[in-house]
Design brief:
Keywords: DNA-binding, Transcription, Transcription regulation. Belongs to the LysR transcriptional regulatory family. InterPro entries: LysR_HTH_N, LysR_subst-bd, WH-like_DNA-bd_sf, WH_DNA-bd_sf. This is LysR family transcriptional regulator. By secondary structure, this protein is α+β, with helices and mostly antiparallel strands. Helix content is about 30%, strand content about 20%. The chain has 7 helices and 12 strands. The strands form 3 sheets. Strands 4-3-5-12-6 form a 5-stranded mixed β-sheet, with helices on one face. Helix 5 (about 105-115) packs across helix 7. It is flat, with a radius of gyration of 22 Å. The chain starts with a helix and ends in a 14-residue tail after the last helix. About 30% of the residues are buried.
Length: about 300
C-alpha cells in the first residue's frame, strides 16, 4: 500500500487539535482542502479515522489505533531523510532563525570553516516555529519560550537579553531613560504563549475608541501600527531591532523584568556532522549579549 506521508502528517495535526478549522489554520490550508486530504487518506486505508460533528472531530477506534503508528511512521521517515542527507556530498545544513534575530556572523563563520559544505538559512515567522520539529530545518535559533515540546531536542542556551518597552514616540514614558513594571500598572499586559513578547490590550486614545485586539492573522507590522498610534504598548527583547527604524516608535529599557533567553535547538538524534561545528560557532558568536544591552539603544 502506498500511503502519502503528507496526508499522514495532516491526520496527526487534526488528531492533535480535535478540530478541522484549527488544524487547517495550523497547516496554512483551507478547511475544505484539509477535509478532502483526510478523506483521501481514509480511502487509501479503507477505514474512517474521524467522527465529525459540529462540536469538533474525534478519533474513531481505527483512528485511535492508527495515531501512534502514524507518529512513529513520520519520525522514522524524518530520521531516514536526515541520515541520507548526512551521508550525501556535499554536506548541508539548514538553519532556521526566528523573527527579530540576526545570525549573519554565525553563518559566515560556519561557511568559512566548512567551504565544501552548503549552509542555508530560513527566516521563520512566529507561526512557523515548528519547522524544526517537522524536519524542514536542521537547527533553530530562537527566543524562549518555544512553541513546541522539547523532548527529543537538544537546547543550548546562547545568551540572555534584557527587555525594552516599545511605545509611541508621543507616549508619556517615551523620553524616560528606563521604566519599571510599576509604571506600566495602567496597562493590561498579556504575555504571548510562544514568544517572549508582551502586548497590552488596546485602549482608547483621546476621542478615538479602542481598536480590536490583534488577531492571529495580524502581521508584526499591523501590531506596530497599534503601538505607533498610541493604542497599546509592548515589551520586546532588546535585540529585536525591527521597531527601531521607525521614528514614531520609542524604545525604553525595562529594569525589573526577567531577561529572555536566545537558544540553539537541534534534534538530539540528528547525525548531521555540521551540527557540532554550528554549536561551537553559535556559542562563540551568538553567546554574548546584544550590543544594544546596557541601555545602548538606537536614538529615535
Amino acid at each position: 500500500m502506498d500511503v502519502d506521508l503528507r496526508l499522514v502528517r495532516y491526520f496527526t495535526v487534526v488528531a492533535e487539535y480535535g478540530n478541522f478549522g484549527r488544524a487547517a489554520t495550523r497547516l496554512h490550508l483551507a478547511q475544505p482542502s484539509l477535509s478532502r486530504q483526510i478523506q483521501r487518506l481514509e480511502a487509501q486505508l479503507g477505514v474512517r479515522l474521524f467522527d465529525r460533528s459540529p462540536q469538533g472531530s474525534s478519533l474513531t477506534d481505527a483512528g485511535q489505533a492508527f495515531l501512534p503508528r502514524a507518529r512513529i511512521l513520520l519520525q522514522e521517515a524524518e530520521q531516514a531523510a536526515r541520515t541520507a542527507r548526512a551521508a550525501a556530498q556535499p554536506r548541508t545544513v539548514t538553519i532556521g532563525y526566528a523573527e527579530g534575530l540576526v545570525i549573519t556572523a554565525c553563518v559566515q563563520e560556519l561557511r568559512r570553516r566548512h567551504p565544501d559544505s552548503q549552509v542555508r538559512t530560513r527566516h521563520l515567522g512566529w507561526r512557523d516555529m515548528r519547522a524544526l520539529a517537522e524536519g524542514r530545518v536542521d537547527a533553530l535559533v530562537a527566543y524562549r519560550p518555544l512553541s513546541f515540546p522539547t523532548d527529543g531536542f537538544r537546547v543550548t542556551k546562547l545568551h540572555e537579553e534584557s527587555r525594552v518597552l516599545v511605545t509611541s514616540a508621543r507616549h508619556h514614558l517615551a523620553k524616560e531613560k528606563a521604566v519599571s513594571l510599576r509604571t506600566l500598572s495602567a496597562e493590561e499586559l498579556v504575555a504571548c504563549v510562544s514568544t517572549p513578547v508582551v502586548w497590552s490590550t488596546p485602549k482608547p486614545v483621546g476621542d478615538r475608541p479602542a481598536p480590536p485586539p490583534p488577531a492571529v492573522d495580524d502581521s508584526y507590522e499591523d501590531k506596530l501600527e497599534l503601538i505607533a498610534t498610541g493604542h497599546c504598548v509592548a515589551i520586546f527583547p532588546v535585540g529585536d531591532r525591527r521597531a527601531a527604524v521607525r521614528e514614531d516608535i520609542a524604545l525604553v529599557p525595562v529594569i525589573d523584568i526577567d531577561p529572555c533567553e536566545v537558544v540553539l535547538v537541534t534534534r538530539a538524534d540528528d547525525p548531521n556532522p555540521l551540527l557540532g561545528p554550528l554549536e561551537d560557532v553559535a556559542r562563540a558568536l551568538l553567546g554574548t549579549t546584544s550590543r544594544w544591552e546596557n541601555n545602548e539603544l538606537p536614538v529615535n
